[in-house]
Amino acid sequence: LAKTTQPISMDSYEGQEVNITCSHNNIATNDYITWYQQFPSQGPRFIIQGYKTKVTNEVASLFIPADRKSSTLSLPRVSLSDTAVYYCLVVNTDKLIFGTGTRLQVFP
Amino acid sequence: GAVVSQHPSWVICKSGTSVKIECRSLDFQATTMFWYRQFPKQSLMLMATSNEGSKATYEQGVEKDKFLINHASLTLSTLTVTSAHPEDSSFYICSAPKAGNSGANVLTFGAGSRLTVL
């Protein structure tokens, strides 16, 4: 399973765009990149998934360069409620191994 | 959308007793479910893969006799923490895969069960 590396923590202010980058140098051809969000004492929640280039949904955008060795989760205009831990995972099977995640703190 | 229900959301028990946690996929069938454990300020640790109609597959270091998993139907998996001790106190989370829009499966997680062993 491809190992992921992401910043331990990030700070931002309300209304700003936040970009969280994840490195996955050993990503395999069949791997997809998936991001989850977790609030304290809750199960993780799916945010977005992609294979290459750019994916956008109502919550976020996911940018994946051509070599797929990294990916960037972009959260537009964050609010206080976006304070959470964000996990980047790469997987081609069902079993997901979580890395350390990035703890995002949004300030007013 | 896919919904996974977990029960109980929290439980307190005495040392030496057993506790059962249920995980249900409400609007889809799950032949496979995953159980995770999470300690405070730490990431999720995969404990085992629950397989409908067959034995669960445990990750290295997880005692199968300690954490009994039963997956008797396509919508229900249970985790029983046997002879619980204070060090078993943790946040237990289940999940089930479902096909996503991109082509790969996406895991839907339950809300988690917080176990406190006194």
Question: How would you summarize what this structure contains?
Answer:
The complex is a heterodimer of chains A (108) and B (118). With 108 residues, chain A is mainly β.
What characteristics describe this protein?
heterodimer, A: mainly beta, 5-stranded mixed beta sheet, globular, B: 118 residues, mainly beta, 7-stranded mixed beta sheet, 4-stranded antiparallel beta sheet, 54% strand
**What sequence of helices (H) and strands (E) makes up the elements of chain B?**
EEEEEEEEEEE
Major β-sheet of chain A, in short?
A: 5 strands, mixed
User: Helices and strands of chain B: which structural class?
Assistant: mainly beta
Could you list the spans of chain A in which at least 5 consecutive residues all have pLDDT below 50?
A: none
The H-and-E topology of chain A, N to C, reads as EEEEEEEEE
Radius of gyration of chain B equals 14 Å
The coarse overall form of chain A would be: globular
Task: Give an account of the 3D structure.
The complex is a heterodimer of chains A (108) and B (118). Chain A is mainly β. Chain A is built from no helices and 9 strands. In chain A, the strands form 2 sheets. In chain A, strands 1-9-8-3-4 form a 5-stranded mixed β-sheet, with no helix packed on it. In chain A, strands 2-7-6-5 form a 4-stranded antiparallel β-sheet, with no helix packed on it. Helices cover 0% and strands 54% of the residues of chain B. In chain B, a hairpin with a 6-residue loop joins strand 4 and strand 5. In chain B, 37% of the residues are buried. The mean pLDDT of chain B is 92. Chains A and B meet through strand 3 and strand 4 of A and strand 4, strand 5, strand 9 and strand 10 of B.
